[in-house]
């Protein structure tokens, strides 16, 4: 192969490789480690922009805004492609361009598939025949790879052509000289076209990667819900006048409190807020008791003053006088004329919480914290419930909540099985690009020094690669034909497809081209002649 064709084929193969890499980065689906999805439009909700059967190419984004055409995952319908028209907290509001109604479902960031990159009219209908539209990227990559295979095949060695003497033409030194190993080529310059194509491909690929990475943000914000749990524990006790009725001489949580034996009930409530996230919490509590009946009568009895707290825990206690409770019930009956056989007592700590997590303030109330007791003429007892679990839940109430907080995430780029931060990709791509450019400079300098012409007249006309060798003049055998100038060497090399060998040392500078067993030589002016014994045939080409 002529050097020019070899260089062209090598560069074509290199650029094909870069094109395949670029196609992978741009079109690889999530199933193959990429960030591109493919959606076939199945309705008319996005007309006139998109129609049924169009192929929509979707790219994952770190954030979405009003006006973006976005595909999201509906829990029942599947993937829906509509336009963002607003937000409600951490949720997005969608509507089809052709629809006169808003999508009832409000997806969150985690349910977004990606933003519309571009669409291809009618292609989706054709792809449905294959039932695998996400693998369009694979088809594109295979196509690029096929082109690359053609470029590589262009570099494959062809069948050697015959020389003037009917034997196969040699592309380098004659067999005898090669076997003796006298000429020594510079390893850096051997197959210099392949080295050049590799450096060009690496530089182009790294530059493309750097351009893509700098086109993306290094971080993005998402809305995360920081969950927390509020728990409480009620307990009560009532001292008994007769220590023989209760173990320990007092009624405790779960026991009935007999009015004849006790004068007061002591209620205690312990509160705790639990969360894995860091929270700065404060608030107020106010323990109250509320008497009531089935007709709707209510009377509040304070058990503790309103108190502020700081931190995630507190404990409050209060005492209810049974005599005071009986007096209120008696007054109600005397003044209203109503005779109630049963009353209710509700104990409520009335907890309000204010806090900050992740720089976001929040507030809540602990509505689940309610203890209910039933009252008759004989006793105070926990509200009857056939289910023991509900009784336990009444003594240990709990409730859950969450706070929507913006969280900064590190943006990444997918490379098959690894996700690399964008900032790292920037540093790595620029660093490697710099190293490749330095290596290219060193390689170019080596070509100039190792394959240069040392200002020999006419050397600039050498189109074939020039390879520096040592001891070529001492290894000559067979026919040697001296030519008149470097131009003749250049013509012979181009005609026979040979490589120009250059031997340069103090006081000696010569060029050689082999065609079969014939060595064509040009010695620069001032170079001493080779002994006649080594030059069996001289002439002019």
Description:
Helix 1 packs parallel to helix 5 and helix 5 (192-214) packs antiparallel against helix 8 (422-450). Mean pLDDT is 78; it is low at 147-190, 451-455 and 529-541. The strands form six sheets. The protein has a six-stranded antiparallel sheet with strand order 1-2-6-3-4-5. Strands 9-20-19-16-12-13 form a six-stranded antiparallel sheet. Strands 7, 8, 10, 15 and 21 form a five-stranded antiparallel sheet that branches. The protein has helices at 3-27, 123-127, 136-154, 175-180, 192-214, 322-336, 388-395, 422-450, 486-496; strands spanning 36-40, 55-59, 69-74, 78-88, 91-95, 112-120, 219-239, 250-252, 257-258, 264-274, 280-285, 288-292, 298-302, 307-310, 313-321, 343-348, 352-357, 360-365, 371-375, 379-382, 398-410, 412-415, 418-421, 466-468, 479-482, 500-505, 508-515, 518-523. The longest helix is centred in the C-terminal third of the chain and has 29 residues, at 422-450. The protein is built from nine helices and 28 strands. Helix content is 26%, strand content 34%. The two termini are 23 Å apart.
């Amino acid at each position: 192969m002529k050097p020019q064709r070899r260089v062209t084929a090598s560069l074509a193969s290199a650029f094909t490789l870069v094109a395949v890499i670029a196609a992978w980065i741009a079109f690889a689906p999530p199933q193959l480690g990429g960030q591109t999805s493919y959606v076939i439009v199945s309705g008319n909700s996005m007309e006139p922009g998109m129609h049924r059967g169009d192929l929509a190419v979707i790219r994952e984004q770190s954030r979405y805004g009003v006006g973006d055409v976005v595909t999201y995952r509906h829990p029942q319908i599947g993937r829906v492609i509509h336009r963002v028209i607003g937000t409600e907290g951490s949720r997005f509001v969608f509507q089809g361009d052709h629809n006169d109604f808003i999508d009832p479902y409000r997806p969150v960031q985690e349910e977004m598939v990606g933003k519309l990159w571009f669409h291809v009219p009618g292609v989706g209908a054709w792809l449905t025949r294959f039932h695998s539209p996400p693998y369009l990227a694979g088809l594109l990559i295979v196509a690029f790879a096929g082109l690359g295979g053609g470029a590589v095949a262009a570099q494959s060695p062809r069948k050697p052509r015959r020389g003037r003497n009917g034997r196969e033409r040699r592309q380098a030194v004659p067999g005898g000289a090669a076997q003796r190993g006298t000429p020594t080529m510079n390893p850096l310059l051997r197959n210099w076209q392949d080295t050049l194509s590799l450096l060009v491909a690496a530089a182009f690929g790294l530059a493309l990667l750097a351009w893509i990475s700098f086109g993306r943000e290094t971080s993005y914000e998402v809305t995360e819900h920081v969950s927390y749990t509020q728990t409480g524990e009620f307990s009560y006790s009532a001292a008994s006048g007769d220590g023989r009725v209760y173990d320990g001489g007092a009624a405790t949580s779960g026991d009935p409190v007999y009015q004849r034996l006790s004068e007061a009930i002591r209620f205690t409530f312990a509160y705790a807020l639990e969360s894995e996230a860091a929270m700065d919490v404060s608030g107020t509590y106010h323990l109250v008791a509320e008497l009531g009946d089935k007709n709707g009568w209510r009377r509040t009895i304070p058990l503790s003053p309103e108190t502020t707290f700081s931190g995630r825990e507190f404990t409050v206690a209060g005492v209810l006088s049974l005599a005071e409770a009986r007096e209120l019930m008696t007054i109600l009956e005397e003044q209203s004329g109503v005779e109630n056989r049963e009353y209710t007592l509700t104990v409520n700590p009335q907890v309000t919480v204010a806090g900050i997590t992740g720089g976001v303030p929040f507030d809540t109330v602990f509505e689940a914290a309610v203890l209910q007791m039933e009252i008759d003429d004989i006793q105070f007892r926990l509200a009857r419930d056939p289910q023991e679990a509900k009784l336990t839940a009444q003594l240990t109430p709990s409730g859950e909540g969450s706070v929507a907080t913006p969280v900064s995430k590190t943006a990444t780029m997918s490379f098959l099985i690894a996700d690399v931060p964008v900032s790292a990709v920037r540093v790595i791509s620029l660093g490697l690009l710099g190293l490749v450019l330095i290596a290219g400079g060193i390689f170019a300098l080596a070509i100039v020094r190792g394959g240069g012409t040392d200002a020999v007249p006419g050397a600039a006309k050498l189109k074939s690669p020039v390879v520096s060798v040592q001891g070529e003049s001492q290894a000559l055998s067979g026919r040697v034909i001296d030519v008149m100038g470097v131009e003749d060497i250049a013509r012979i090399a181009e005609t026979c497809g040979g490589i120009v060998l250059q031997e340069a040392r103090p006081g000696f500078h010569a060029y050689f081209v082999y065609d079969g067993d014939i060595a064509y030589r040009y010695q620069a002016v001032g170079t001493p002649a080779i002994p006649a014994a080594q030059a069996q045939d001289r002439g002019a080409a």
